[in-house]
Amino acid sequence: MNKIINAMTVDVEDYFHVSAFENTIPRSNWEKMPLRVERNTYRLLELFEKYNVKSTFFTLGWVAKHCPNLIKAIVDQGHELASHGYSHKRATEMTRAEFFSDVEQSKNILEELSGKKIVGYRAPSFSVNETNTWVYDVLIELGFQYSSSTYPINHDLYGVPDWPRFAYLRDVSDQKLIEIPIPTIRHRDINTGIGGGGYFRLYPYWLSKRRIDKFHKLEQMPYNFYFHPWEIDPDQPRVKEASLKSKFRHYVNLSRMEGKLEQLLKEYQWDTMKSVYLHKNAKIME
Ligand SMILES: [Zn+2]
User: How many Å lie between the centroid of ligand 1 and the Cα of residue 123?
Assistant: First the structure.
């Protein structure tokens, strides 16, 4: 087994929270939707336990409010709890004051339920770019130590292709915060995303594995993987009104995900973001 220890991360949200369905399922309907996130996340906890993997759970404040016992189960099993904001609004669609209150609300509820200090944050849909770098000032103000909110690729919905590809320190008026981008492989000045989610579901396992191995070989850096509880749930209710593209991205290969995930858990070493990136010997670029 490869010696590099990688970071496993889950964005804890339900199928109806995703940005791709935001025009089809307004926030005012969330309360009426059948919840799947709780049972799906419990299933993930079982899988992580089976392979002795610790993970970071970037959790929506909305999910914490509706599933308080799940939050306790996550921390009781030794995983890291982190914030994915409260209402899954993209940081690019909020004012600084709105962003502050959304993230503060999520941090408060997660800390209250878990009794742990929350130090990690991930923006919905990797929505940090050159237009809203004040996000980092707010995160420092709220006591966060790291963020994993950027994807240095060209993509129709997000992406900062010219930004750093590896964990680095952001200076924010004398204070520092670590930004941990989603991993990419670079070929002829073009970055290809290999971080997980939809790509991992779309491609056969051997191709994802080949890319992760290539990343390790070329970069000698920890890899980090992200996905969502709804990706292991082929029986989730279908959102028929969404666009064909959104539906393809959301539903492709859901039934194969759990098996692929098990392969990944078995074949690599995994730990939390905090354990991989927040210790004094971690490779963090200045
Ligand atoms: Zn999300």
Answer: 7
| Predicted TM-score (pTM) of this structure | 0.96
C-alpha 188 to ligand 1 mean position (Å): 30
- In terms of phi and psi (left: phi > 0; alpha: psi -120 to 50; beta: otherwise), the region of 189 is left
Mean pLDDT over 33-41 rounds to 96
Q: What is the largest CA-CA distance in the chain?
A: 49
Structure tokens at 66: 């509706």
CA 13 to ligand 1 center in whole angstroms? 6
- Ordered by start, the domain boundaries in the chain are 5-277
Distance between CA atoms of 83 and 228, rounded to whole angstroms? 14
CA triple 215-226-120, angle to 5 deg? 105
Mean pLDDT, range 107-121, rounded to an integer: 98
| pLDDT band at 1; cut points 50, 70, 90 | low
Show the tokens assigned to 153: 């690729």
Work out the average pLDDT over 216-230: 96
Q: What is the pLDDT of residue 164?
A: 94
How far, in Å, CA of 207 to CA of 214, rounded?
11
Just give the CATH number of 5-277. Answer: 3.20.20.370
User: What pLDDT shows up at residue 107?
Assistant: 98
Contact present, 79 and 9 (Cβ < 8 Å): no
Centroid of ligand 1 to alpha carbon of 124 (angstroms) = 4
